[in-house]
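Troubleshooting: if your tokenizer reports a length mismatch, compare your output against this known-good record of 303 residues.
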Amino acid sequence: MSALPTSAAATRDRSPPWTARICGHPAAMTTWLRLTAALLLLAALPFLTLCASPRRERPVDADEESVADLVRLAESTAPAPPPVGRLRVLFIGNSLTRVNDLPATIAYLAAAGGAPPFTWVRDGIDGGSLGLHARQGRAPARIRLGGWSHVVIQDHSTAALSFPAALDRHGRDFVRSARAAGAQPVLYQTWAAFDRPEDQDVITAAYAALAVDGAVVAPVGEAFRRALASTPQPDLYVFDGLHPSAAGTYLVACVFYATFFGRSPVGLPGDPPHFYRAIPPATATVLQRAAQDAATAAGLLKR
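Known-good structure output:
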């Protein structure tokens, strides 16, 4: 192979590094800075959401606590009594509880509606089922420690369809454990996937069968069904057709507000500070009415 001409080699050797080439061109520099800023903002979003959330007990996620330590503590101490005059809720579930920070959204509605003080701990495993929570052992230990007014029990979104026997077995175990610790068990009824609305009947029946030993069902799936029948139809799902959008989480929170406090959510504001943007007032009203109707049909609202 012949060598490059001297002039060409010199030109190549004098080529500035990529940083200099970017800095020397304002348009390229602007594009690079915007891309960097976008990536930094994306990385910071989880921390910004946490900082903007209302005051609460520190959420607990998988692998953050020693299961063995919790089990030993639960086995060696009597359950703490439930709180008086306030709600302290343990959420057992997965990403359907974590996405958009459902507990913080409920706390926001509670404060806006003048409800009793509301604090919580979230024990979540993304993609997890009640069976996985039971095998891991941390959630059952946390229930046994007591001090909860309510324990929210949420299984995998497909459990009622694909593993109904496991949902029934583990659901009943968690209900009994919550009752034994002096807490009110609340079953988080999940919703059907966007492209399979016909599955809601099966899901609703599966959670209704678990309403034993004084457990109540938060009729979230039924509220989804009612909201999706509205015109125009609210956008309750993200791209995967399963996880909730901000509007979907707001609807779930409205159902839990009615379930916990026996009050209608109609008239509450729709701008939780940890949401990227407020729920439009017309959409918020549709969601509040869907939650109210589902809670009324379930006999949850106080007359």
